[in-house]
Amino acid sequence: MLPPLLFVALLIFAPIIYIALFSVGLRSNIPGTEVAFSLDNWDGFLFGENNPFRARFFYSMRVALLVSLVTTAAAYPLAYFLSFVARQRRYTLLLLLLAPFFTSYLLRVLAWQIMLNDEGVVTWAARAIGLIADDGNISWLIYSTFSVSLVLFYTWVPFVTLPIFAVLENMDHRLVEAAQDLGASRWTTFWRVTFPLSLPGVIAGFVFVMIPTTGEFITPLFVGGADNQLFGNSIQAFFGTTNWNLGSVLAMALIITVVILMLIFGRFLNTDLRAAPGGDEK
Amino acid sequence: MKTSGAVGKVLLSVYFVLFMVFLLAPLVVLVVFAFDDSTTATLPLEGWTTHWFSEAFTNGQLTNALVRSATIAAVAAVIATALGLMASVGLTSDRLRLRSLTVASLMLPLVVPYISLAVGLVILLQAIAVQTSLTAVVLGHVVIALPFAILVLLPRLRTLDPSMNEAARDLGAGDLTAFRLITLPLLGPALVSSFLISFVTSFDEFAIASFLAPAGQPTYPVFLYASSRTPALLPQVIAIGTLVIALSMALVLVAEGGRRWAEKRLVGDQEFDDEVSEDNLAEVLVISGKS
User: Quick one: how far is CA A154 from the chain centroid?
Assistant: First the structure.
């Protein structure tokens, strides 16, 4: 038990502690700089007038929230299809649905750049069917909030299907039968029985997207313009240059945000993910 | 199950099929351009060629990056699986104190954003006066792979029949012997799964590697990112990319199929609860997806 815990302490807790120290000025990456406790960087980030990084933070959170909501909504029918319609082949189809997920993340984002760029496949197709002029472009297709959101949506949909599918599979199906025996229509049964019972999976799926998306920075590098970089890109930029103290404020703000999300939603992950299969037999 | 009417079923099926098209389209596009005899990834196609593949394989920087990533991933996966096994055995013990705190600590890498972890490691390295290094990349990858290893190993460890261990002990085996002769072989398939998931996690990881890999020694994702900005290199990157896509898909399918086959054989068909294996699959898939 001790070696893994020491390892985690050294490589997770120590970096977080160092980020915290840098964020309040108690350490510096520039040799010879005087170090002293200071909340100036935090003050600027949280309360500074028109602070660009705070604006970037809220932009990222809006994108993350939008992507999480749309992704979860799109994944629900997929999970429902697998669980209730594709009974026999559900695990085969699930694996097929998840197949893109196993390929390199960077490659998938690169593929979208090839699809969406100004001379890309989508533009070519739009020209071919006369949707736009032969030399025309669709301005919002790439380097826009749309392109960043679309690629994030693409990335996470298969993944969000899983917790919803797991909940639908483990549901007591007799409740659905009972509702129908008592005269409820399929629509009523769904909204009054199936959907409420599947809510833990829906929330888990939502959090599964929300958490990694808040720290996302790879997708904007490929398909985002200057205005569509996310908060993660701001952090990345700071550590490419010199001001690690301000960068640490941003990195710490991101960690705190994720921890808050986990405190709010963590219990849904606990019941659905961490409880070992067969663990309740013990 | 008559929960959805015929129309609903058709609509859901159509939705699923359309979604599969949406999911696979970008990958198909990538594969098509890997064989297109053009220096740009644009339509219309200009003709069939395999020369991007031969060019890619003679590009020393590219092949070195691939080998480098595979080596890092293998080392990280072995360490993560070993640590994951220790943690899992510890977590099954009834004597463990501060259980939820321990679990939370071990699972923390799942939620800490990789970008924050990466810059934290940069700061940590600077504090101990170490510049970027591949060893640091390996250690960073072990951290993020460890929760996956535990989530693969722990459920398997819990479903093992404790009476087998007791039988071994009744027959005179010590704790360690019983573990080596009974538990470890039964865990075999799960250990392989843990290794593969850790391997894939490391091989694909960009954030930590982009900060910690030395400038002249990029990992494959870092090289891929750098060269995707160089139009002349793009066709080669796409060619290798299609190979990586094909290999990783094959690996996952073979690994999952193999694990289920092996576990059925090991545990015995009548005792083996298929649903447990399926749930385990879903769980592993869920956790292996965090990028």
Answer: 11
